[in-house]
Every structure is written in C-alpha cells, then in structure tokens.
Amino acid sequence: MKKLINKPENVEVEMLEGMEMAHGDLLRKLEGFNVLVRANKKQGKVALVSGGGSGHEPAHGGYVGTGMLDGAVAGAMFTSPTPDQVFEAVKAVDAGKGVLLVIKNYTGDVLNFEMAADMAEMEGIKVDKVIVNDDVAVMNSLYTTGRRGVAGTVFVHKVAGAMAERGAELDEVKRVAEKAIANVRTMGVALSACTVPAAGKPGFALEEDEMEVGLGIHGEPGTHKSKMLPADEIVDLLLGKIFEDMPMGNGDKVAVMVNGCGGTPVSELYILNRRVAQVMAEKGIEVKKTLVGDYMTSLEMQGGAVSVLKLDDELEGLLNEPADTVGLKI
Amino acid sequence: MKKLINKPENVEVEMLEGMEMAHGDLLRKLEGFNVLVRANKKQGKVALVSGGGSGHEPAHGGYVGTGMLDGAVAGAMFTSPTPDQVFEAVKAVDAGKGVLLVIKNYTGDVLNFEMAADMAEMEGIKVDKVIVNDDVAVMNSLYTTGRRGVAGTVFVHKVAGAMAERGAELDEVKRVAEKAIANVRTMGVALSACTVPAAGKPGFALEEDEMEVGLGIHGEPGTHKSKMLPADEIVDLLLGKIFEDMPMGNGDKVAVMVNGCGGTPVSELYILNRRVAQVMAEKGIEVKKTLVGDYMTSLEMQGGAVSVLKLDDELEGLLNEPADTVGLKI
Amino acid sequence: MDGQVFKKLLEEIAEKIKENRQFLTDLDQVIGDGDHGINMDRGFSKVLEKIPSMPDDVSMCMKQTGMTLVSTVGGAAGPLYGTAFMKAGDAIKGKEEVGVGEAILMMDAAIQGVMKLGKATTGEKTMLDSLVPAYEALKECLEAGKEAKVCFVEAVEAAEAGVEYTKTIIATKGRASYLGERSIGHQDPGATSSLVILTVIRDFLA
Amino acid sequence: MDGQVFKKLLEEIAEKIKENRQFLTDLDQVIGDGDHGINMDRGFSKVLEKIPSMPDDVSMCMKQTGMTLVSTVGGAAGPLYGTAFMKAGDAIKGKEEVGVGEAILMMDAAIQGVMKLGKATTGEKTMLDSLVPAYEALKECLEAGKEAKVCFVEAVEAAEAGVEYTKTIIATKGRASYLGERSIGHQDPGATSSLVILTVIRDFLA
Ligand SMILES: Nc1ncnc2c1ncn2[C@@H]1O[C@H](COP(=O)(O)OP(=O)(O)O)[C@@H](O)[C@H]1O
Ligand SMILES: Nc1ncnc2c1ncn2[C@@H]1O[C@H](COP(=O)(O)OP(=O)(O)O)[C@@H](O)[C@H]1O
Ligand SMILES: [Mg+2]
Ligand SMILES: [Mg+2]
Ligand SMILES: [Mg+2]
Ligand SMILES: [Mg+2]
C-alpha cells in the first residue's frame, strides 16, 4: 500500500483539516468532530446534512456550500459515522426550520443516522430523512436490505439543496429529494480494487482481463466478475441495466453523471460519456445536463459508474440553480 | 493494461468528442481536428491557445471557456501536437486582436507550436508566444533544454485568460503571462507509473516502498527514486525545492495548487495541502487562493505536485476574476 | 460475578478483539467492505480506556460499554453491538451479583435488541447466527441443570456451528447481501466477532 | 537511383520503422516518455499511404515525406525528422538521378537542418549522434574512392558506434536531459531510429 498519507489512523481528520485550510471561504470543520459545515451559516432555511464513511471524496464535505449541503459527516474509511457525530452536525446547522438527513441506503448509515435523529428530536430539533438507493446492480427486494445509495446521491444533494436555498419548508425539501431518489439510477464497474489505509491491502483481486460489475462504493466486490470489455460495450451494459429498471424513451429528458471511482483518468470517463450521449440520442432521450468527473469515489479504485436522473421541469429547474461547493459549481 | 477505452488509436478523438458532448455549452470540437475551441467565440479580444500531448486531462481542453483559453490542441498521448493542428486552432480562435500561444517547455511542444506560429504569420495572423517552465525538479541551465512546463501552466492560463477577457492588447496579455511564469514553481512526486494506451505497459517500475521524485507529466521517470515518505515529509521536500529556487518569506502572498497526477484520490491531496498550509503559516506567507485537485494529470499515475505562484496585486486580481471552464470555475 | 470481576472479563474481550482485528477485517474484505475488525477494535480500545472510570456495577458497565461502542464503532456493527450491550445491561438493572439466570436474561435482551434494530432474524448471515444458537444452547443446558461453565462450553460450540452455518447461506442482511450467491462459502464477520466474545466468556469461566 | 526506385526504398523504411515500433517505444520509456516508436510509426504509415500519389521525383518525394512527418509524427521527432527530409529533398532539387554525390548533399542538408532547429550538436544524446558519424564515415569512404555500397556499410557501422556512444553520455537535449545522470547506460531512441533508417538504405543498396 502506497499512499500520500501520514498515519492511517489520522487520514480522516487530516484530510478534513486540509479541506478546511484550502476552502475556508466555503466550509469549516467543527472542532473535535469529523464534520464540515458551511462557513457562512444561512439563517431561516431548512438545513441539509449528509455523510457516510470517508473514502468517497469529494463526497460529502465537497458538497457543503451554497445550494447543496449545510453539513457533512465523515466516518472512518468506508464506515458509517457514529450517531454523536451526526447529532453534532445537526445541531450546528439547524437554523430553526428543521434538518433533512440525506442517507445512503446501508444498514450502518441508516442505523447511525436514525439514532442521531432520535437524539436531535429529544433536543427539540425538527429532523426528517430520505434514503437514497440508486444502485441498480442489486435487485430491490423486500427481503433484503434493498438497493445501495451510490453516486446518484450527488443529484439528490443538488436538487434538495436548491429547494432549501429557495426557502422552502422541510416537507417540500423532502418531497423533491424523494422525487429525485425515485428517478435516479446508477450502475458501475471497477477495473481494480482499492486499499483502506488501516486495512493495508486491497479489498479484492482482479486478473488483468477482468472487471467487477455492479459494485458499490466501499471497495467491496461487485455482483460478479466479467471479462474486460471495450468502453462502449461497458456503457451499453450499464445503461441496459438502468433502462431495465427505469424504462425511458423518446421525449424523456435526463441529467447524466459519468462518475469516476477515483483512480480512473477523466479522459476515460469522457470516452464513456461519448457512448452514453450516443445511446441517449439513439433513444430520443434529451440530455439536459452532463456531469463527468470524480463525484463519489472509492479511494484510488479504477472504474466508473453511470447515473441517470429522469427530469421533469421541477427537477430540471432545481438542477440548474447555482451551487457553490468544492465538488460542484453551477 | 486495463482501461475504459475502445481502441488505443481512438482514445484522443473519442475523449474530445465525449467532452464536446458533455459540455456543448462551453466548447466545441473543430471537425477533423483534435482541437477544442470556445462554443461562443468572443469578438474583439486577444485569443489564447495552448495544448500539448494528451493524457493531462482536464488540461488543456478543460480550460477552454470564459476567462481562460480560447482554443486547446490535443496531440497524441504525451506527444506534442503537430503544427497543422495548432495552426487550425489559431485560425479558428483569432478574433482580430492576435493570438497568444501558451507553450510548455518541451522540445516537441516548442518546435511544433513555433512552426504553427510561422504558418499563422504567413496568413497575416498576429501571433506571440510564452513558454512555461515551472518545474524546479530539473535545474535550469543554458546548456540543456531548461526546466519543463508542468501544472503551474494552469495558473498562466488563468492569469493571461483574465487579462484577455478584460480586453487587453496582445502585448499586455503576454506581459502578465510572463509575470506569472516568472513567479510560478512546481515540484512533484509519483507513487506509480502510468500506461500510454498505445504503448500498453507502464513507463517505469517502482518497488512497494519507493517513489519517483521530481518527475514530469509524461509518465517519464523523475530525477531520482527515493524511499517512500510520510505525506508531511514529502511536502517539506517539495516546498524545500521550490523555496530554494524562489525564496519567499514573511509578508509574501501566494496562490497554491496541490495537483493530483490522475490516480491519486483527492483525500490524499488534501492531506498534502494541510502540510502546505502549515508550512506557509509558519513562514508568514499568506495563501490567498488554494486549488486542490486533478488539474494537470498524467493518465492514471498516482502522485501529486505542489505549485506555488507568488502574487502581486495584479496577479491576485487576475486570479480572482471569473472563469467558466470544465476544469476551473471561479 | 460482581462488577469488579466483570471488568476483568470486559478487558479480556477487548484484548481478544484486538488480537482478531486483522482476521475479522480479512473476513469482511471478502464479503463486505473490510472494516469490521478495525471498527470493533476501535470501539473496544475505547471501552478498555474507559473501564477504570466505570462504576463497579455489571449493569452500568454493560450500558456504558454499549454507549461507547455506539459512539466509536460506526458502521452496522456499532449500533447493533452497542444496542446489544445496552439492552443486556438494562435487563439486569439493580442486580449486584450476576449468575447464570442473569446471563440468560442479558443474552435474551441483547438478541431482541439486535433483531429489532437490525430488522433481522437467524439464517440471514449475521451475528444473530452465532448469538441465537449460543443462547439456545446455553438456556437448554442450564435448564437441564448442568454447570454454568459446561453450559458455556456448549454455547460456544453452538456459536461455532452457527459461524460454520453462515458459510452455507446467502446473506440477506448487511453488505454481504449485495453479493448474492457470491457470499456463499464465506463466514460472516459479525457472527465471528460474536463467537470471539462468547469464547472469551467461556474461557473466563473455565 | 530514380524516383521509382526511391519510392521502394521509402516503403522499406516505413516497414522497418513499423517492425521497430515496440523496440523504439521501449527505449523511449526508459529515458523519455515512451512514444518514439508509436510516433515514428504513425508518421511513416502515413508516408506509406501517400507514396503512390507522390511524383516520381526523389527531391519531391523527400519533401512530401518531410511534410507528412511534420503533420503526423508530433513530439520532438516530428519537426526534426520532418525538417531533415524536407532539407534533404531541397538539397537535390531538380536532379532526376540520385547518386553518391547527391546522398552526401542530402545527408549534409538534413543534419544542418536538424542541428539548427534542435539547437543541438553531437554528444548530446540525440539522433545527431548516429547521423553525424554516419555522414562523416560515408563522406570519407567515398572520398577514398570506395564503392557506394561498401561506404554505406561503413556508414552504418559508424552509426552503430554512435548509438553505442549514446549509452555512455548524459543527455543535454530532449526529454532524457531531465533525467540527468540517470540517462547514462541507455541508448537514445532517436539515434536508434536514425540507425534503423540508415540500415534500410544499406541493405537496399547491397
Ligand atoms: N441487519 C443486521 N442485523 C444483524 N447484524 C447485522 C445486520 N447487518 C449487518 N450485520 C452484521 O454486521 C457485520 C458487519 O459489520 P461492519 O463490517 O462493522 O459494518 P459495515 O457492514 O457497515 O461495514 C456483518 O458481518 C453482520 O454480522
Ligand atoms: N534538440 C534535439 N535535437 C536533435 N534531436 C533531438 C532533440 N530533442 C530530441 N531529439 C531526438 O528526439 C528523440 C525523441 O523523439 P520522440 O520521443 O518522438 O519525441 P518526444 O521527446 O517529444 O516524446 C530523442 O531520442 C532524440 O534523439
Ligand atoms: Mg463499513
Ligand atoms: Mg512525446
Ligand atoms: Mg464492514
Ligand atoms: Mg518520446
């Protein structure tokens, strides 16, 4: 394991400090907690808090700022943050209009955020939550933990953040967040594994001609291994899965994210996007907005994911409103 | 070699097409050429053209847009573009006030861009050039090719682009570009090599406990190998070299870029930045602006570089003016 | 067992978790995200730090251990183990001596707590697959009038069988569930950490 | 040699460059950026495509080859080799037959062109370290009245020695110069590609 770090146990806090030092105009770190909040707290608006394990940078601290999140909680690498950390974030960002928790659907995230919500409610803070589950790799089923939350979460931050910035009430912010969740799907592949600093070795092994299909964002293995394919065929595979789950066609409009896993050059993501745009054009689907880059990563993993957010006028409008964060500026 | 590509020989053109498809509002590709130009050509301003080999994405196409470049020429992977491609870019962006070529100091880049300048002048287009040589890894000497141009080039694009956007004349744009070049220094390390698609194997080999110090941005080896060091010590090493070349101290003000080589997670870059900020604070140097991310990459190479731009009021003002490009938004 | 003795037991649990840090992490790398050992060790290291300042009361010790785990472990295991310890402590509130009867009460409460919070049951490839059989074996053995330390040996045997059983089934809870069929053949990290804890108790009583 | 024969020679050069694509790239990976073979092959493949449409005139063929290289090779080698071919072609403008005298003129012009554009001389670990000794050996040999094909054998021997020599020196031009002392022990890719071309000429005349 070779990394630009000091001690594995200090990675999370040092990276948050480095972010605060770089972007003091946008965000600050809560002293003693692995929580980033907006530098300039805006009064009289619903506050948004998200977070999860570290290792997904720029998520989630990179989305703290005008038009997106008010607070982001960073757990240990790939480990859901503890309730007290989330609670601290909620207290720091609440501006009297309530707090919406944007949770990715993992047992750990859900349990820890829910415990924090309980703690906040006992303190009289109005808290509500939405759970993002955009990953179509895993079939949704009543009898399992359901689909994971992955890169599509960034769209949820953007849409809900814009609604909150407009001054909407908590239930309205929650409504658009849930609308975004209902309309976003993601599917990805990995070409290599990543190494959690404290673990010291990669999460899985791949042959030179293999890829992991349908993986999450925690360095875990995917649903299956497959022979390596050309970029265009990979895109067809990913979009196929997405369209299977959320049929779309002529006249529909969407936003697209081609997300890098952290170790893949952006040039390769653009090659993926070329095919995405072609397929969309063939199907008569209008791409209103395209994001290409490392938005929700898995440390230095190589690979990429495609997210599709089906738009109506409301979502499109919210997506195009200004955002001023480290990870996304519009 | 495992990459999200189709055929190695199509990587450059497909990635440029993917960029155009993603960011049609900002840029377009010149049909038949590997050149990206602004989507909305601005009349009556000096035009800026830069470029070089591909593999440095988002450089250089990612810096095409308001307040930065008007055109970017993409050669084959790590290979300077040919004069005809540069010439095409110059013709496309010239808006009657002349064109400034921002060239990174490599024999190939200089020769090809100069040939293009000759061609443009024969067509009556006013062309001037600046040559960026910010890499302090290699000692500058009259008897060699001199220092390389690396990540600091992005600062030159930004500063000169802002000056051009203000409506300044060619000589004024050139003056601030040269001022930026005179005041910017960069030094980097790599933890792994990268693989040019057409070459099919990595450019050098490193042991698990080794890093390359003082490398360029073309997958080439650095000035020497060294035992792997903790992040803070790496920063001290890089800044030490920079300060040796450009002494700075109490009261000076700077802009900092912590640049990722492409395969390193941004979290590690923030850990580097934490130490950069500490050292600057210790020295009484004021950091007016910090950029952290993949600005000038070497495909999927792991590693990072620190660039320091010493600011006066003029440079600071230009740096803070708006930029609307894929790679940098201010 | 009184509070002071119980603290010794807690210390030994913390030590054994540290010893198994890499093993549990390795198990979690195969079918999860490779942090279970790291998480558990982070939590129990904090517990170890706090033991001296805990009151000499088993119930209170359990509750404080649970709260410490909740605020240091993170992930799925943090709230689940945290709840297990808190509920167990709550189940014997006010008792100064803890015997076999209390042990049964505690384990029952712990399991109920985990099941409710995790919305899980046995056969889903989780810690419940070692906890529940251990509990049942323990209860049956004690009801049959056997000695406590014998019954804990049987409980650990049942937990071991439970861990083996997790190798044969598909996960339907936790991260391993995303793997579908690929989770078969691998033992569950959480069931294994539960086995580690139960084994310490067995050895402590031996 | 007339234009038609010369085109055959050009074709063979293009083929040999393709054969050496990986070898030249490997050399460039060690002390450069690993593209020299790829670049040269891209250029000469385009030349090969264009040969049928080139006029049957050595001077014109050389110039068109040079222009093609400039617009397809890129990097340092593109302008340098491009200039070499263009200057060489220019040096024999109007001549229908090319003999040993013309060969000397062409090589001299090519070398002067490369030196001027690249601001380089021998001993800097570049293509000049095989081109210049080859030129000098050729000239000396012809002046000594020996046969052309014998002289080309000697020229290639000199170029080979030049390539060997590049292993012993530090690069002061081109990318390898950034390596400082680390460039010692490795042969220069550009000097090697020049040797490849000279070898084709030798074999063509043999
Ligand atoms: N719903 C659940 N109920 C009971 N135990 C669970 C549940 N989900 C996960 N677990 C247990 O937690 C273990 C994983 O813990 P850990 O790796 O620390 O957390 P995470 O999965 O968040 O990374 C699994 O091996 C399993 O035994
Ligand atoms: N200034 C120069 N003069 C002569 N030859 C040079 C000069 N600079 C580089 N070369 C030659 O060019 C070769 C490298 O070509 P190539 O790899 O295609 O270009 P680049 O270095 O731009 O990647 C070197 O091996 C060397 O022989
Ligand atoms: Mg985890
Ligand atoms: Mg090159
Ligand atoms: Mg885990
Ligand atoms: Mg080269």
Features:
heterotetramer, A: 330 residues, alpha/beta, Rossmann fold, Hypothetical Protein Tm841, Chain: A,domain 3, six-stranded mixed β-sheet, C: 206 residues, mainly alpha, Serine Threonine Protein Phosphatase 5, Tetratricopeptide repeat, 9 helices, 0% strand, binds adenosine-5'-diphosphate
Summarize the structure.
Chain A is α/β, with parallel strands linked by helices and 330 residues long. Chain A has eight helices and twelve strands.
Q: How would you name the oligomeric state of the polypeptide chains in this document?
A: heterotetramer
Q: Given this structure, which CATH class of the largest domain in chain A is correct? A: Alpha Beta
Widest sheet: strand ordering of chain A: 1-2-4-3-5-6
Radius of gyration of chain A: 19 Å
Number of H/I helices of chain C: 9
What proportion of the residues of chain A is helical, as a percent range? 25-40%
Largest sheet of chain C, in brief, is: none
Report on this structure:
The complex is a heterotetramer, with two copies of chain A (330 residues) and two copies of chain C (206 residues). Chain A is α/β, with parallel strands linked by helices and 330 residues long. Chain A has two domains: 172 residues, Rossmann fold; 136 residues, Hypothetical Protein Tm841, Chain: A,domain 3 (2-Layer Sandwich), CATH 3.30.1180.20. Chain A contains eight helices and twelve strands. In chain A, the strands form two sheets. Chain A has a six-stranded mixed beta sheet, with helices on both faces. Chain A has a six-stranded mixed beta sheet with strand order 9-8-7-12-10-11, with helices on both faces. The model of chain A has no long low-confidence stretch (mean pLDDT 95). With 206 residues, chain C is an all-alpha fold. Chain C has a single domain, classed as Serine Threonine Protein Phosphatase 5, Tetratricopeptide repeat. Chain C is 71% helix and 0% strand. Chain C has nine helices and no strands. In chain C, helix 3 packs across helix 4. The longest helix of chain C is centred in the C-terminal third of the chain and has 21 residues. Chains A and B meet through helix 1, helix 6, helix 7 and strand 11 of A and helix 1, helix 6, helix 7 and strand 11 of B. Bound molecules: adenosine-5'-diphosphate (2 copies) and magnesium ion (4 copies). One adenosine-5'-diphosphate sits at the interface of chains D and B. One adenosine-5'-diphosphate (ADP) sits at the interface of chains D and B.
